[in-house]
């Protein structure tokens, strides 16, 4: 099973979008990254949203790249909102509700 996850760092006021089989473990890794990595700039990353992918890793990578290619903080914040209805390329995402802060 693959997931798309959204992290947020209050320190640098940035979001990060990734894909993984274990987003909870990846969160720990991101918080331990060295400063030369994007997420290494902060140590306070929190999970804001996790979505299960109806598909394989290739599908997860494509959706991750699609979201990142939009370069839209507004889209990212919309994805975090539990009431957002997902359609189009994002229709295969299934929200994992228990990760909300």
List the helices and strands and how they pair.
Elements: E1 3-9, E2 14-20, H1 23-32, E3 45-53, H2 57-69, H3 73-80, E4 93-95
Antiparallel strand pairs: 1-2, 1-3, 3-4
Through-space gap between termini: 23 Å
Helical content, roughly?
25-40%
**General form:** globular
What structural category characterises the helix and strand content?
Answer: alpha+beta
From the alpha carbons, calculate the radius of gyration and give it in angstroms: 13 Å
Mean pLDDT: 92
Total strands: the figure is: 4
Low-confidence stretches: none
What's the number of helices?
3
How much beta, percentage-wise? Answer: 25-35%
Compressed to H and E, one letter per element, the order equals EEHEHHE
What is the number of independent domains? 1
- Provide the spatial order of strands within the biggest beta sheet: 2-1-3-4
Major sheet attributes = 4 strands, antiparallel
